[in-house]
Design a protein that fits this description.
Distance between the termini: 11 Å
Largest sheet: 5 strands, antiparallel
Shape: extended
Helix content: 40-55%
Number of helices: 11
Structural class: alpha+beta
């Protein structure tokens, strides 16, 4: 199970074209916005902010749910030939349906789970009639459908004749949950070791969720309470131009006029779109100013080791690249560094929050 990480940075096409100056990681926080930031913002208090937290509780039911999911993951479908279809079996069917006043419809290769009530394929009565039948059987029946039947609108309120051929029956064969299973499939010496790892992962996930909650609570307060004096023109225009040009490139790639693109995808006029992009750019720049101000005040940087660890997590777990190197081919190192710096600043604020414990437990779902 993957642990959810705090993903507060902005990794986007905008960052790719953000005109960053290449630099070492130690002085990165002084290369962008390389001037006195107090001219642009009056930074709000960011330490000791109130945040509600909850005790973390991992239940036996949660652990068992993870175990069950793992067992089902390694299950395999096997053909059933020695008995009739039973609830939970996966059936492969062909059928022909018709009424007195409609042309017969032929439907082939349908897959249903018996007992699931898959009325989108067959009426529930027809599905139920398959129970007990063997692969190769042909089941014929007439069903009076209600006026409210919607799966095939022309059948509503009519009696429909079905000829159903049960082509194949399969069932899910689950592995035995033993130490041998843990060793062969999961890489653990025993199921006890596996269950301990499951509990640890659930706890880590819940703890990350709790941290994310504190980040969300405190960061929004800092942003809201920070006063924007004026916007740095170059950075604001950079973000605005990148956003607008990205949308124009999308419209061009689809071969449609930009005004049509905006109308179809955003229900907006060009002026409404430009105004919205400027507001977005202002929001991004304000948050960047806050991040860099706090990073400089608290000397928050990204070491080489942190960069490799955190960027690799982004590459593999978030963006699902095969390696950090592939990630860096798609996003510049400066862009990745800025995202990691934003994460670390937000984590710093959360770690210095004034936490109030609630009695309500937090579950790891």
């Amino acid at each position: 199970m993957k642990t959810q990480k705090i993903l507060c940075g902005i990794l986007s096409a905008g960052m790719l074209a953000g005109c960053f100056i290449s630099c070492g990681k130690d002085d990165f926080i002084y290369k962008k916005y390389n001037y006195d930031l107090t001219k642009y913002i009056d930074l709000a208090e960011y330490k000791g902010l109130a945040a509600n937290v909850y005790p973390i509780s991992i239940t036996d039911e949660q652990i068992q749910s993870e175990i069950d999911s793992t067992i089902y993951y390694y299950g395999r479908n096997i053909a059933v030939t020695d008995r009739g279809a039973a609830k939970g079996d996966i059936l492969y069917i062909d059928f022909i349906s018709s009424t007195e006043d409609t042309v017969a419809k032929s439907t082939q290769g349908q897959k249903i789970t018996l007992g699931s009530g898959s009325a989108s394929v067959l009426p529930p009565e027809a599905e139920a009639a398959l129970a007990g039948h063997y692969a190769g059987d042909v089941i014929s029946l007439d069903i009076a459908l209600p006026d409210t039947y919607t799966a095939v609108p022309e059948y509503a309120g009519k009696t429909v004749h079905y000829d159903i051929t049960l082509q194949q029956i399969t069932t899910l064969e689950l592995p035995m949950y033993t130490d041998t299973f843990a060793q062969a499939y999961l890489g653990y010496d025993s199921i006890a070791d596996f269950e301990a790892a499951v509990e640890e992962n659930l706890y880590d996930y819940a703890n990350d969720q709790l941290m994310q909650s504190v980040v969300n609570q405190t960061w929004s307060v800092v942003v809201e309470n920070t006063t924007l004096i004026e916007y740095p023109e170059q950075e604001l225009n950079n973000w605005y131009d990148v956003a607008v040009n990205a949308h124009k490139a999308n419209a061009e790639s689809q071969g449609i006029p930009f005004s049509t693109y905006l109308s179809v995808y955003y229900k907006a006029t060009e002026q409404e779109f430009y105004d919205a992009m400027m507001e977005d750019a202002k929001a991004v720049v304000k948050e960047e100013l806050i991040v860099y101000s706090i990073a400089r005040e608290e000397n928050i940087t990204i070491s080489d080791e942190e960069y490799i660890e955190r960027a690799t997590e982004y590459a593999l777990e978030v963006y699902e690249f095969s390696s950090l190197e592939e990630f860096e081919e798609n996003y510049s190192k400066d862009a990745i560094l800025q995202t990691l710096l934003g994460d670390k600043v937000r984590e710093f604020i959360a770690e210095n929050a004034d936490r109030t414990m609630s009695e309500a437990p937090t579950s790891a779902n």
